[in-house]
């Protein structure tokens, strides 16, 4: 925020107000007090008489002004200049001023606070005599009200404590102005640290009763209470979180011990699924905060067990069949106080499900694993029997192409894991696997039953568990796309499913089906009566149902569908119709995509927005995704992460993920379980239109301060606090950067648990140089940019928010890949980009055009035949169309890039620097751990010179060229567009064979 050179913005200057007479205490000047430039009552005073004075006492309890002034005129004399003379403290509740009267036998007087508020006796002024005169609530008398009282301290003091608990300021200054006085010079007076997070300064107020203040860190960062400044009275005051507490206790005094236990958790539920039980409960309350819960289980042969959890949900697995278990929950605070036990919840388990045991994640550093991203339903079809077209099959044009939206499946993906491995990728990011329900849901982002894998993706011998296990057997990871923000418009099974929308009339009979007893929607099973696998039968009625909550149910809206059919209220989902319960779903549409409502309102009518700050929703989602953690997935890609407050991620979902992985698979697996969020900032600048709350890097940090225990209130408090802090007062990190040529251990103490997709590089990948420059510019604002997921285009957008798949040309693709595979971050490729699949085609046009004509076309035709990988980037055998695919120039380029990256640790996990580096896309990287010390000098496309580097022997991993550096300098000629040089100190030598770009 811009500031003047002399003092921060927002300073209020005492105004001299001279207006017509007004009511007692009104903000007007008294009668007889025109502007100072024309002094009132220009009557010449008589000659002065020594000793003739009046001591005027004024009662303060009624006014409680910050300062008091006496504006007066001796009888027959001139008025003082506004605001008059300052009055001093006399004794409790009284101020006084002694004024000379000369030969006058009295005076006329008014009183004011020096800032425009007056007591002018209702416009009549006060007529006072000589000697001791009192004015109390309009009554004039003659006495000394302070006779016999101890003399006051003529210099009042304010002891100010300022909290920096969340600011991290190394020093604090208080810039202040006593009431009626002048501001200190910027930056003000230094405050002293007195205890953790608190600074103190005692301010001499003189005769003033209060001061105005602002605080700063000495380096231009201010807290001026949003421009209003802080008003602080005499005595001890604290300033914390924009709130002044007068007459406060010393915040650094010893804190009394916490002896109060939390309340008992409420509404404990236990639900069995086979031999697993999901236990959930409402949060307990505590005067200082609950830190964990103890869940006690009794029943079965195992006796009593107690499990500690940090969230309000526990998935208890591996139990005995057909056995009753009882659960109680206690809350624990930081002092170890334990609540009473909750009411018990009892449940009986069912049969042990058939199928393989849960797997185990590979648990290695995710930066070592390049990612291949597939839309599972569009990648490769291994089982045509689970293909489904949905309600839009004909309308979309897919039927004419014999191309059902659900076409690819897990069986097809398993069959082509060797293709992906042969490209050199060791991680596969797949679209959401949960059972979807919408008109066009092949992509997976319209979840309905979050506890169930969509049957349209599974086959006999090719379940989701089979896919995870098959990938792990090949040394490959599975990253599952997950959605916490919304369900489909049909609700969420097990949480809330709306039972009635709309009206089924003759126009809509094709859409709304009759409910069939015994038929349950699963996306796969075909209803024998209608012949449809998609099903809307529980969402229609010919009469308004009992208990309807939807407003104006069944009344025509006045609009028509594209087919020309009448549209009815409540026919389609809406957050404002009363259709969805307030306790589970938000009730508004997003109006400002960079506003607070972007986190708490609906994106689209198909996406019913969860109220993720509610315990019931949190428990539902945590319990659902625990299932997939137990199956052994290696990480979560988080869809629409920006549409959930960071406080909710940091308090609830991210700790629950870590806790579950550690519980099931151990601490190493938890440390390397890779969570990366989609914080969709589709702009080319560092911060998303200046809004920190909507910027990708923001989500990689822990909270900087404590907020309300209520998650909804905390979300609003955090939003306002961080928006006020702005982009210039956000945490920074050196975790991605070398210190000169030295690798340093990264500081993970402030990490939230979520890494992110590098949206800024993505937006700027129309040109590799732009992507590189923009990436570097943002890296200090991420917790650790070496974990950023970097891609050119995706299932949503191309660079610069293009709606088409990238079409910059093969050479540009090669250059982009060379940068991604050597610069910091994790290189990621959208399926088919290795052959420029569907380049320039519109990525998604919904049901208005065939999928075959879009960027989400079916890829399996290019994978037909067989393929066997003998290692990463190594194909030992291939036949058919897939063999042709593997001969394409970008495929060869990718294979070698993956070989080089895998052979040079600095390119995987190293920090980087451009210090002492000249050239366009040139940098140095280093990783040091134990006996590993990998140092590489990289230049992409253009030449570069590196100075101040360690002396020694460097070998280019691309060409095999060997250089000996003895003066800290190495110069590299331009290798050509898409080519690169990777000179490694004591390196492995040339890696792989020359290809179309790397040579």
UniProtKB/TrEMBL annotation:
Pfam families: Alpha-amylase, CBM_25, fn3
Compositionally biased residues, Polar residues: 384-395
Alphabetized PROSITE patterns for the sequence: FN3 (PS50853)
Name this polypeptide is given: Carbohydrate binding domain-containing protein
Region (Disordered): 246-266, 342-366, 380-401
Organism encoding this protein: Streptomyces gulbargensis
Tagged with keyword Phosphoprotein: no
Signal sequence region: 1-33
Cofactor(s) essential for the protein: Ca(2+)
Keywords assigned: Carbohydrate metabolism, Glycosidase, Hydrolase, Metal-binding, Polysaccharide degradation, Signal
Biased composition (Low complexity): 246-265, 342-354
Domain Fibronectin type-III: 261-352
